[in-house]
């Protein structure tokens, strides 16, 4: 049976975590502490997998269904939805951003005036 927004809102915590299924692999995981997470269960290359789609109410029932449908399209194309989601997040970051992050992390640890100094490291980038 398909979930309604009212049923999602009224889902209360119990003494154990439990799930409420929607359709086509979408489910709402209700934790003991009252937090609610959308999950998508699927099978890829014979292995059962599960991925998180977000936290309710940040991700509404409608948006969770849209995300589930996007994942099902990726599955139909032969792709693992959890891996393609990670790939898109990583590819959004440009090399310059990665280099700047590394520089901000590493520069305080390099000594000035030595071979291999911070200035030399910046030149390499």
Question: What does this protein look like?
Answer:
Strands 1-2-3-4 form a four-stranded antiparallel beta sheet. It is α+β, with helices and mostly antiparallel strands. The protein has helices spanning about 5-10, 60-75, 80-90, 95-105, 120-125; strands spanning about 20, 25-30, 35-45, 45-55. The longest helix has 16 residues, at about 60-75. It has five helices and four strands; from the N terminus they run H-E-E-E-E-H-H-H-H. The chain has two domains: about 5-80, Double Stranded RNA Binding Domain (2-Layer Sandwich); about 95-125, no CATH class. The protein starts with a helix and ends with a helix.
SSE order and pairing:
Blueprint: H1 5-10, E1 18-21, E2 26-30, E3 36-44, E4 47-56, H2 61-76, H3 81-92, H4 95-106, H5 118-124
Radius of gyration: 22 Å
| Percent helix | 40-55%
Pattern of helices and strands: HEEEEHHHH
Assign the CATH architecture of the largest domain: 2-Layer Sandwich
Kindly report the spatial arrangement of strands forming the biggest sheet: 1-2-3-4
CATH topology of the largest domain: Double Stranded RNA Binding Domain
Mind describing the biggest β-sheet? 4 strands, antiparallel
Number of helices: 5
pLDDT below 50 for ≥5 consecutive residues: which ranges? none
Mean pLDDT equals 82
Instruction: Give the class-level CATH name of the largest domain.
Output: Alpha Beta
CATH superfamily heading of the largest domain: Integrase, DNA-binding domain
Distance between the termini: 55 Å
User: Which class do the helix and strand fractions yield?
Assistant: alpha+beta
Q: What best-fitting shape do the alpha-carbon axes yield? A: elongated
- Number of separate structural domains: 2
Count the strands? 4
Beta content:
15-25%
Organism: Stutzerimonas zhaodongensis
Protein name: DUF4102 domain-containing protein
GO biological process, one term: DNA integration
Keywords: DNA integration
């Amino acid at each position: 049976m398909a979930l309604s927004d009212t049923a999602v809102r009224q889902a209360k915590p119990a003494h154990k975590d439990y799930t409420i299924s929607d359709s086509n692999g979408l489910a709402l995981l209700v934790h003991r502490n009252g937090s609610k997470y959308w999950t998508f269960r699927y099978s890829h290359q014979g292995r059962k997998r599960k991925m998180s789609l977000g936290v309710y109410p940040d991700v509404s029932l409608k948006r969770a269904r849209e995300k589930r449908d996007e994942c099902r399209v990726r599955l139909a194309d032969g792709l693992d939805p959890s891996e393609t989601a990670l790939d898109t997040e990583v590819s959004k970051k440009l090399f310059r951003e990665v280099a700047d992050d590394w520089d901000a992390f590493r520069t305080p640890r390099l000594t000035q005036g030595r071979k291999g100094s911070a200035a030399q490291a910046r030149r390499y980038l």
